[in-house]
Specification:
Blueprint: E1 2-6, H1 24-36, E2 44-48, H2 57-67, E3 73-77, H3 84-90, E4 105-107, E5 113-117, E6 127-128, H4 131-142, E7 149-153, H5 163-166, E8 170-171, H6 173-181, E9 186-191, E10 198-202, E11 205-209, E12 216-217, E13 229-230, E14 235-242, E15 245-252
Parallel strand pairs: 1-2, 2-3, 5-7, 6-8, 7-9, 9-11
Antiparallel strand pairs: 1-14, 4-5, 10-11, 12-13, 14-15
Helix pairs in contact: 1-2, 2-3
Length: 271
């Protein structure tokens, strides 16, 4: 199974730029175009939050149009820039989001079990895993203890060292870590929010954040550094599950020189 992960698309209404600078729609179009060129094609596309910038119905409609060339099923969880009711309405034809409450789900129809976890706190940038959400997660994992599982969540369950983002990070991390420790069937925790590729271990389980197809959060580990973004190369991730092993790749989006051969036609190393 090959899964493409896209995160933090921040789609606005047509013609609008994010932060007065970033054409998130055009950059998502580039991402979709690059996904369509992959061989083999992903079996599934997952979106790990901040699908839109303001959570408006017009933004979700624009996002759906931008994603429409993709033939794969698209699975999405909300981020802090999303709005539950608008996202629920925009995604209702996909059939996996609950009709009320948190936008949690568990999908059993793939080689990997997919658990989507809603970490959103309406009106706030930070996320939360409250007692209700943690109980739902623990009970959902306990129902299939032998099934290799991916957990999808927007806010990463670890401190990244990027101070201004950690201040709008996730509460409830400690209890989440204990749940992960008790559930070794979790192969990987896929996250967004940071607009960067970051790796960590949570309760013995690997966790990654994915770069955005648009702007990236500037990499600065200095305490109290200002909140800034940069136009570093955009990207997405590919997660390959085969023979009981999950391997993740970061793919840069853009037109780059190459690919070039290492060897001549008669198998001589080019020097």
């Amino acid at each position: 199974m090959l899964i493409a992960q896209i995160t933090d698309t921040h789609i606005k209404r047509p013609g609008q730029l994010a932060y007065g600078k970033v054409d998130t729609a055009a950059m998502l179009q580039d991402c979709v175009g690059q996904l369509l060129q992959l061989d083999p094609q992903p079996d599934l596309v997952v979106l790990t939050g901040d699908l839109t910038d303001l959570g408006q119905p017009e933004e979700y409609a624009h996002l759906r149009r931008l994603l429409s060339p993709l033939p794969q099923e698209i699975i999405a969880i909300p981020g802090n820039h999303d709005e539950r009711s608008a996202m629920r309405a925009a995604w209702q034809d996909f059939g996996y989001l609950p009709q009320k409450g948190f936008l949690h789900f568990a999908l059993e129809d793939y080689p990997l079990r997919l658990i989507g976890l809603d970490t959103v706190v309406p009106g706030e940038s930070g996320g939360e895993l409250c007692a209700e959400r943690l109980t739902w997660l623990a009970e959902t994992l306990a129902r299939q203890p032998e099934a290799p599982t991916l957990v999808l969540m927007h806010h990463p369950p670890f401190v990244t060292g990027i101070d201004h983002m950690d201040r709008i990070g996730l509460s409830g991390r400690e209890a989440f870590t204990e749940i992960m420790r008790r559930n070794p069937q979790v192969e990987l925790i896929l996250c967004g929010h940071l607009h960067r590729a970051i790796h960590a271990q949570i309760g013995g389980r690997p966790a990654v954040t994915c770069p955005s197809p648009a702007h990236q959060v500037a990499l600065t580990l200095a305490p109290d550094a200002p909140s800034r973004f940069s136009m570093e190369p955009p990207g997405f991730m590919l997660h390959r599950w085969q023979d009981g092993q999950l391997v993740s790749h970061v793919a840069a989006i853009g037109k780059f020189d190459g690919p070039h051969p290492f060897f001549t036609e008669d198998s001589q190393l080019i020097d």
